[in-house]
Design brief:
Length: 193
């Protein structure tokens, strides 16, 4: 695309590109420039295919999105979406995630020491992973896994549940050799296992 960042003038072209796709992942590296967030908002409003909304794309605000969407916030991004930061207490995280998912009409995967997934009706948790995964890029891998599962025909709730489990387990496998040196790219070889 022409220009230095995503803009509303790109919306039509992006939507045209997605017509041949079965899913899309958006957010990583976009920035939170006002023009970028306006473009993301327009894409989300007009998109009809399943999508994972992550990172900077989560800052478009508290808009009702629809059942085809998975939001993957960490605690601070969750606060932007829900108005309130979840506590470390798992029951609090479950309650707030289910409430936000119901309000936005989509699936929410709250990342953390225990990942919480809810579509507003069903809720699941995944305790896979390890403290070495609290680094940049781990959420990008998770978003990619969820997007790949959506592209293969999984429903949003199922894709988010499986994505959280796979990402965490891949991190556990990779951490056996990498320990504190674990990087997001180390997960790639562990995902097939």
């Amino acid at each position: 695309l022409k220009g230095s960042c995503l803009d509303r003038k790109h919306v039509g072209k992006i939507l045209g590109m997605t017509r041949s796709c079965t899913a899309v992942v958006m957010g990583g590296g976009l920035t939170r420039e006002r023009s970028v967030l306006r473009a993301v908002s327009a894409i989300l409003k007009k998109s009809r295919i399943p999508a994972v909304v992550d990172a900077d794309a989560l800052y478009v605000g508290k808009k009702k999105l629809g059942q085809n969407f998975i939001l993957t916030p960490h605690s601070q991004e969750f606060c932007v979406l829900g108005g309130e930061k979840p506590l470390n207490d798992v029951q609090d995280r479950i309650k707030k995630t289910k409430s936000l998912a119901a309000r936005l009409g989509c699936t929410v995967l709250l990342k953390g020491h225990v990942d919480v997934v809810s579509d507003g009706k069903r809720t699941a948790t995944s305790a896979t992973g390890n403290p070495y995964m609290t680094k940049g890029g781990m959420g990008d891998v998770l978003a990619g896994i969820c997007g790949a599962l959506l592209a293969r025909g999984a429903g949003p709730f199922e894709a988010a549940c499986c994505g959280a489990y796979i990402n965490g387990l891949a991190g556990e496998i990779a951490a056996k050799n990498k320990h504190e040196g674990l990087m997001a790219s180390d997960l790639f070889l562990s995902i097939p296992r």
